[in-house]
Design brief:
Length: 384
């Protein structure tokens, strides 16, 4: 594979002039009930702070999707989870764009009135936000999504008619869509105890696991940015609602945040083993995993594909105390001993919260030793 490390400087000069970037990857896995990021866009404030500290944050829809709420920041690259895994593995580059043409894929299983509500959101985003949305494709048959729950308590799901989704996605891509927003009908029959716990901030998002399955499927086979919004009928009003899920109560659909996120999602560029020299110009303002300096992830969710790929590359991991139903830390994976043997610097750094994690990123970006900020400071070591 061609060594593309020279692009780091080119990327900075092309997009941000003299500003020194510290590209950082932020991951909060879907469907595991994290205290921050396990609800309706409640990790957005943390992502905004981290984007300011790093100058370039790469994250995924679970962090940035807040139903009717969203935040568009040119310093944040919105990358679906499957694409994020491939990026971390060095198989794709991310090319920032000014605008995507977002095709809309609607499940025929959505009731007429609810489908109309989603079309109204698309038109509103075109008229009020200036987004390039369209064309629209309705699937030939119901997608038929089923919700499941893993033994750990995490949410999961399956799609009984995946070929229906893929066929509709191919139509949109052939019609000129460069990104796809997917809306599928989700089951209304969620156990009252699960739904009540989630709405009161003490449970897992029972829809998130199935949403990830749907978006992973389309990104894998179409190689363009995709994200999902579930179609559900409104729930009864709840006067004991946790603020972290309140964004889901503000409208009839969850589509607005997906359209905004996809509107500037970076292109996914496959990196060939024998990449041609002529392609270097195209990649000169694209990001690859070689540009990433740090990964921020919940302390108990370090077993994911992207985090493990970054650990193998020696990228600094900032493990934040952000509890969920998963408990896979660097100690559970026996990473700490291996890291001490193979790295001269501390590769896994713990942070009590995202405020502290952002401070760590800023200190590393400014070239300030993290050790110098902590007390007590150990005496400098002497090699004998």
């Amino acid at each position: 594979m061609l060594d593309l490390k020279v692009r780091s400087v080119l990327f900075e000069e092309t997009l941000y002039g003299d500003f020194i970037l510290f590209p950082t990857l932020m991951i909060v896995p879907s469907g595991i009930g994290c205290s921050i990021g396990g609800f309706s866009g409640d990790a957005m404030p943390s992502a905004r702070l981290m984007a300011a500290a790093s100058g370039c944050l790469i994250t995924h829809p679970n962090v940035m999707n807040g139903a009717a709420l969203y935040w568009n920041d040119p310093r944040i690259q919105y990358v679906e989870g499957y694409g994020l895994d491939k990026f971390a593995a060095g198989q794709i580059a991310l090319k920032p764009v000014r605008q995507q043409k977002v095709g809309l894929l609607l499940d025929v299983g959505i009731e007429f009135e609810l489908r109309t509500r989603h079309l109204h959101v698309a038109d509103a985003c075109r008229a009020s936000l200036g987004l390039n949305v369209g064309p629209v494709v309705i699937t030939e048959a119901p997608v038929d999504v089923r919700l499941q729950k893993g033994k750990s308590g995490s949410s999961w799901g399956e799609v009984l008619n995946p070929e229906i989704l893929l066929e509709a996605g191919k139509k949109l891509k052939a019609a000129g869509a460069t990104a796809i927003a997917i809306v599928t009908k989700f089951p209304e029959s969620i156990e009252d105890s699960n739904l009540s716990a989630y709405r009161q901030g003490d449970g897992v998002d029972f829809l998130a696991g199935a949403e990830a399955v749907i978006s992973h499927l389309l990104v894998r086979y179409l190689s363009i940015p995709c994200a999902h919004a579930p179609a559900l009928n409104p729930l009864p009003i709840d006067d004991d609602l946790d603020p972290r899920v309140a964004g889901e109560e503000l409208g009839h659909t969850f589509l607005a945040c997906v359209l905004v996120g996809l509107s500037r999602a970076p292109d996914l560029i496959e990196i060939e083993e024998n990449i041609q020299i002529k392609n270097l110009r195209m990649l000169s303002n694209a990001l690859t995993i070689d540009d990433v300096n740090a990964v921020v992830a919940p302390q108990g969710a370090l077993g994911g594909e992207a985090v493990l790929a970054c650990i193998e590359r020696g990228i600094t991991i900032i493990a934040v105390e952000n509890p969920g139903v998963m408990s896979i830390s660097s100690y559970d994976l026996d990473l700490n001993d291996a890291i001490k043997k193979n790295c001269e610097i501390e590769q896994v750094i713990t942070a009590k919260n995202y405020l502290e994690a952002s401070g760590l990123i800023l200190s590393m970006r400014e070239g300030i030793s993290v050790e110098s900020l902590r007390r007590p400071i150990k005496q400098i070591s002497l090699i004998r």
